[in-house]
Amino acid sequence: MSSFPELVKDTVVLLEKLSDVNIGKITDKKDFYDYKETRLLYLKQKLEQNLASLVPSWKTYKHIIAPTVQNIIESNLEKCNLTDVHSCKTSLIAIHGFLPKKEKPPARKVSTLKLPPEIADEINADLHEIEKCSAAGCYRSVTILCGRILETALHRKYYEVTANDLLEKAPGIGLGKIIAKLEEKGIKLGPGLTQQVHLVNQVRIYSVHTKAEPFYPSKGQAEAIFLFTQDILEKIFK
To answer: How much of the chain is in helix, strand and coil states, percent to nearest 5?
Structure first.
């Protein structure tokens, strides 16, 4: 399913394509071989699907929008129907103007880091996913992926030191316990690094598990968590 901003933009495009057409007169009683009629019917059906999806999509997206702006957007959403196509288009353009502008995400590559080849593809895939999540404003997903990256890195570090795979012997082991096991083997991450790992882990836990009040990291918090994660990777594999 498209994100709410993508859905709004796509719906405006559809309305523009149908701007010179009486949408009410487009029916499925058409000549199958008439390309123009077939295309108009397709556009109308796609438009109807988009309009029906706007409110459900908005409900999954609205948490990142300020309450005062939410009210404005919801007021405009009420006008998004085929009763008045012009008003519908105007409302969607207004909604689009209130949505966060897509920014070019910061680079997510750890340029000075040589990852073990056994986990390089997996971590780089997560870094690429973080880039997409950050650009889409999905900051909970960013923090969850950062926790996953740390799990992958710490499990690999423990395997390199001990030749024992905790993923097989202790699946579900927490990051704190992995750190403790590394310290037992003489691998000191240092108090500062350990605190960083615990911080990322706590934010990840609050993002994943059901709480009385859901936790939604801000853009700044998600960016800080990523920077912590990058710093930890560099120190583990330096």
So the answer is: 70, 0, 30
Q: With contact defined as beta carbons under 8 Å apart, do 167 and 157 qualify? A: no
Q: What is the pTM of this model?
A: 0.50
Instruction: Answer yes or no: are the C-beta atoms of 70 and 64 closer than 8 Å.
Output: no
Distance, in Å, from the CA atom of 100 to the CA atom of 134, rounded to the nearest integer, reads 12
Angle made by CA atoms 144, 223, 116, in degrees to the nearest 5: 65
Tens of pLDDT, residues 27-80: 665 554 556 777 778 888 898 999 999 999 999 898 888 888 899 999 999 999
CA distance 64 to 138: 9
- Identify the residue whose tokens are 């990058």: 230
CA dist 159 and 40 (Å) reads 60
Tokens read off for 37: 């009629």
Domains of the chain, first to last: 4-98 (no CATH), 117-236 (1.20.120.330)
